[in-house]
Amino acid sequence: MTEKKNAHTAQSTTVNAKATATKAKETAEKAKDTAGKAETTAKTAAASAATTAAHTAHVAADKAQVAAGKAVTTGRTVAAEAPKKAAAAAGSAWVMIKARKVLAAVAGAGAAAAGATTAVVLRRRAARRRRPLARLTGGRLGA
């Protein structure tokens, strides 16, 4: 009977070994399929990342080109307007030099008017401080 058990156990072990080998083979095939899918996914992700990076670089280059164009335009505008502004400033200075006599006369008249106004105000203030008799006699009596 021991031999029957051994034969049965050997047969059972062989069947178990075949089943395990079959499962191992299936697992290996699944692993191979999974590795293939992972490889495909990795290739797709790398291609997508490369495409995105290229697009980003292209957009940045376009923006830089637009900014450079604006800078050139602004520089041209400033360069074109600078002589005009300088000429206008020189013209204003020339007008001021030509009109210096008029300006001096106006300034002198303004100073004279201010002086006269100050004199009148001070005289009136001085007259208010006197009593009526002193005002009538010009300050000779009643001071």
What would your notes on this structure say?
- This protein is an all-alpha fold and 143 residues long.
- Helices cover 92% and strands 0% of the residues.
- The chain has 3 helices and no strands.
- It has helices spanning 2-98, 100-128, 132-136.
- The radius of gyration is 55 Å and the shape is elongated.
- The relative contact order is 0.03.
- The model has no long low-confidence stretch (mean pLDDT 77).
Q: What percent of the residues sit in helical stretches (DSSP H or I)?
A: over 70%
Largest β-sheet summary: none
List how many beta strands DSSP finds.
0
Report the sheet-strand fraction.
under 5%
Order of helices and strands: HHH
**pLDDT averaged residue by residue:** 77
Ends apart, CA distance between termini: 164 Å
Please report the number of helical segments.
3
Structure at a glance:
The chain is built from 3 helices and no strands.
List the main descriptive attributes of the protein structure presented here.
3 helices, 0% strand, 143 residues
Topology record:
Blueprint: H1 2-98, H2 100-128, H3 132-136
